[in-house]
Amino acid sequence: AMLNADALEESTQDTYRSGLRAWGRFILTYGLRALLDEDTRRKNDRILMHFVGFLLVTPKRGGGHYAWGTIKTYLSAVRDYHIAHAGYDPTKRPRVRRVLKAARKYCVRHGRARRKWALNPDMLRAWRRTLSLSWDDHVRWAAALLALFGLHRVSEYARAGRVYKGLRKGNIEFSAERDADGVPKFVYVHLERFKNDVWRHGMTLKHFRSHADLCPVEALWAVLQHDRRPATAPLFQLSPRRGSTAPRYLTRAVVEKYT
Question: I want to staple 112 with a disulfide (CB 3.0 to 4.6 A). Which of 59, 103, 107, 172 is the partner?
Fold first, then answer.
């Protein structure tokens, strides 16, 4: 069982379950108890440090080794397991944190940690100069601006798997007030669910038109003003491949490739 399982995204729950299975393999291998005793903290430190090392050197079932992000998330699963069943967090200890930092350096050195750079206005302006006037570039540009100014995660606007849970066309609501050129003065973005939404109440963001070169309202309007798809369609749709009529959507792989 996990702490506040209902408050976690399904993908996070799946990763935590995988982490607990790895914890189970570790304790069975070395004959340990699944729940660490709070009174033996120094011993717990050694066990958790050993667990981090176990993840670093143990091959995955599908081949390869665990990445740094996976190791960190698996340790978070062990943390939640102990908080839910024993009421304390054994991973907060300074020795465990130092080992985690050392593990990260090891993963970076061996290419098992991917460094992600945050988008910023200068990067977007430089990227914009490389884009054409094609439909797909309009879609990518609108997605990038919405992500930057709305602080959206990729899973909230791009398809990551077979089941799409992100923004849909009906989640975008333009204002009835228009400027002289016909562009709405602001837009509402309705998030039905997001990663940190513990109570699943959703949230509505309001973006005003800035008349600047980086304006999410203008970018969204350029994509959606002539869109005739139903409101339930995923927000960002790419043009079909040559010789095909099947729709294509913005995916996590496309975002990582172009941003």
Answer: 107
Query: Each residue of 105-115: b (16+ CB within 10 Å) or e?
Result: ebbeeeebbee
Closest CA to 249 of 121, 162, 131, 186: 162
Tell me the per-residue pLDDT of 94-153, one tens digit each, with 9 for 90 and over.
999 999 999 999 998 888 887 666 778 998 999 999 998 898 999 999 999 998 898 887
The secondary structure element, H or E, covering residue 94 is: helix 94-109
What pLDDT digit, counting tens, does each position of 160-205 carry?
Answer: 666 777 789 999 999 999 999 999 999 999 988 776 665 667 889 9
Burial (CB count within 10 angstroms: exposed 0-12, middle 13-18, buried 19+), residue 137: middle
Can you read off the two tokens belonging to residue 119?
């988008």
CB 91 within 8 Å of CB 223: no
Half-sphere exposure of 85 (CA within 13 A, CB side): 13
Q: Which is it for strands 172-174 and 186-191: parallel, antiparallel or unpaired?
A: antiparallel
H or E element, residue 254: helix 252-258
CA pair distance 147, 251, nearest whole angstrom: 14
Beta-strand pair 237-238/172-174? unpaired
The count of other CB atoms within 10 Å of the CB of residue 252 is: 13
Structural contact between residues 251 and 159, judged by C-beta atoms closer than 8 angstroms: yes
- d(CA 246, CA 186) in angstroms, rounded, equals 32
Are the CB atoms for 234 and 168 separated by under 8 Å?
yes
